[in-house]
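Sync notes, pocket subgroup
Present: LS, DG
LS reminded everyone that the earlier model was apo-only. Rerun requested with adenosine-5'-diphosphate included. Inputs:
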Amino acid sequence: MKLDATELRYVLPDEFRVLQAVETGSKNHEVVPTQLIAQLSKITGGNVNKCLGSLAKRGLVSRVQGAKYDGYRLTYGGLDWLALKAFSKRGTVTSVGQRIGVGKEGDISIIKGKGTNAWNEDELEEQEIQMTGEEETRILKIHRLGRISFRAIKTKRDYLGTRKSASWMYMSRLAARKEWEFMKVLYEYGFPVPEPFDQGRHCIVMSLVEGFPLRQISELPSHVTPALLQAKLMQLIVRLARVGLIHGDFNEFNVMIKDKSFEPVVIDFPQMVSVGHENAEYFFNRDVECVRRFFRRRFRYESDECPDFRQTMADLADELAGRAEPESGLDPELDDDEVFERSDKTILARRGKVRLDELVEASGFARNMWQDLEQYMNDVSAEPGENDVSSEGESEDDDEDESEERLSRKLKAKMSIADGDEAPELHDNDEDDSEDDD
Ligand code: ADP
Ligand code: MG
């Protein structure tokens, strides 16, 4: 799937309205009838067809000739375009650079954008806020659920109800929304996660972590022992549980290690679960086991002491009831990860006195949305995919080859941003500024 920001400027105002109409119509129609598009866009007959033809040529919509009627479908390219257009209008994305990751269910690109703490503005979109200030290099993550396996599971499941027709779009938006809500709250409560800047449709803009996935780390600096690094990661798993959360995919791909400080940063949250989940213990222990297995294989390190879900929750209950003191590693006073100490909220979180799962739910990411996504994730994880990389039988050599390739790709990406090439400017010079988002 191509993400080409240079295309943004070439869509005329009428075409833009037609594209938005196709998006709106997709919420209830698998194939949006041409007549409905005309109605929604308020553009009449011949002109609608002309706009649709031009959008189809660029792959933003695709024409479907059905048994009952002809119509159009929004493509991923079309959804990308709408999302980027909104970001560019706000200034949270000003140019798009190289793609550094193409996962089964997401694309990661380096971008430039403006604005700080955009996420503090509740209704960023409605308020039509324009970012000011310096451009910074950041990350755009585009969720693409359903790109591979939706067709297969679609027939099996009926959990989407009337939204079924736009399932890939709905699931991708949900995943982005979920990741966004968690990233915001985790960042706010002092967890080492990227800083969230903006979200719209199926995309998130976040800070660039200057470092590499743990997967690519084969040597540790002299002041970091495997024991120390593993303990840090285990402590993160425990800290998350103490605020009500289990990452659910806490592996060497989703932990980044910062270049300078060698501190871990956790990414990729669409499969996060609450400690109240019926399988919480299983997910917690699986996260712990993922870390153990990686350290065993990569560093030949094995520790006897690893966190256990029940023990973690029992310790927390004792502390909250005043029957015990927190362990030293969990006491913020004794902690040295300077960067993430931001506020009293960090301390609350360390002491387990806040439930982030509840905060997220209260933020509007309702339980049924959470469940829809979980159901989908379960179905997909039952399908074989190229992301299933952590099976025991895999050879270390393969690991190394792959990580080198990724490393060089990533370095290239960083360099091209620094040189200023590969980063086409986005122009927002449409006449028609009456667009809205969502
Ligand atoms: P996926 O759902 O495809 O696994 P991730 O969020 O895990 O998506 O991102 C995939 C890869 O992209 C990561 O392993 C990492 O290399 C890179 N990446 C993601 N987010 C960032 C970020 N904020 N800063 C730097 N690299 C990132
Ligand atoms: Mg990942």
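DG: Residues 112 and 137 are 5 Å apart (CA to CA).
LS: The first helix runs from residue 13 to 26.
Action: DG to write up.
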